[in-house]
Amino acid sequence: MVRLGSWIEPFPEGIYVRPADAWIDPAMPKPYALITHGHGDHARGGHGTVWATPETLAIMEARYGEQNGRPVNYGDNVRLGMVDISFVPAGHVLGSAQIVMEYGGERVVVSGDYKRREDPTCEPFVVTPCDIFISEATFGLPVFRHPDTGSEIDRLLHRLRSEPERCVLVGAYALGKAQRLIMELRGRGYEEPVYIHGALERLCRLYEEQGVPLGELRLATGTPKAELQGKIILCPPGALNDRWSRRLPDPITAMASGWMRIRQRARQRNVELPLIISDHADWDELTQTIREIAPKEVWITHGREDALMHWCHLHQIKARELNLVGYEDEDD
């Protein structure tokens, strides 16, 4: 009896699709690569030919230079070798996609990273029934249940207004999280300029070029201290406690990440205001997604594989872990 999905081979450096002779999110350069989204642990430079959404290709070009890219819009179909392939939204960041593959009467969906929460900067996740669902498990433990995003933004704004002589400095990943925070603030009625670290400028401008209106942004560097009092400043997580941040007016240090659920992580980064805002599905959303898709098998990657695999077995769903390597903690 032929094993389900026998035409897909997981290797430590990525997933090889044999009848297409292509790799999905490979950790090293390959002749043919299918890329789910632009984060550095999924998209790397140096591939021969890259298939991705137009937005992901734009992100890769901004980060790695010109790509030999083949843009695939959501819903379009392409054929590689003997495999029919389409891209559907993953809801993770701008341009993020699930890769849907059909071959030999089987359908496999590689989700990449995904979330189920509403995000004004990207298309929402699309539930796609399949035989095999390849799922991340970044927050694959029952302890991870993300709060309402709007309530976390309200906490940020309340703290800002309660200490107007200070500023709030928020650590946020440069791709996806920073832009989402800005849009969430705009959605809560915050119309003031948002100040940003220079390392965020290029990707913020790219989002605007791709049709995401972020409102007025100003560089924090070189701005007088007095102007920054009572303002929100975004920076990469690594800049929260470095020399750059010491020039700011008594910053309230915040960080936006699903990992802020873990108090020890907040303490390690000297975070005064932990904001639990994630671009990944939490435990309930992971299990909800599997229920809705109803696959015959779930293959689990980069995260807390054991707990989600156990949950699948309890619900009579075959599951396995792929043990891929090379995935970074992106500060979510």
From TrEMBL:
The residue ranges of the Metallo-beta-lactamase domain are 11-173
Give the Gene Ontology MF terms in alphabetical order: exonuclease activity; ligase activity; RNA endonuclease activity
Enzyme class per UniProt: hydrolase
Q: Which UniProt keywords apply?
A: Exonuclease, Hydrolase, Ligase, Nuclease
Top-level taxon of the source organism: Bacteria
Look up the signal peptide feature and give its range.
Answer: none
The Enzyme Commission number assigned here is: 3.1.-.-
The name on file for this protein is: Ligase-associated DNA damage response exonuclease
Source species: Sphingomonas cremea
Q: What is the lineage of its organism?
A: Bacteria, Pseudomonadati, Pseudomonadota, Alphaproteobacteria, Sphingomonadales
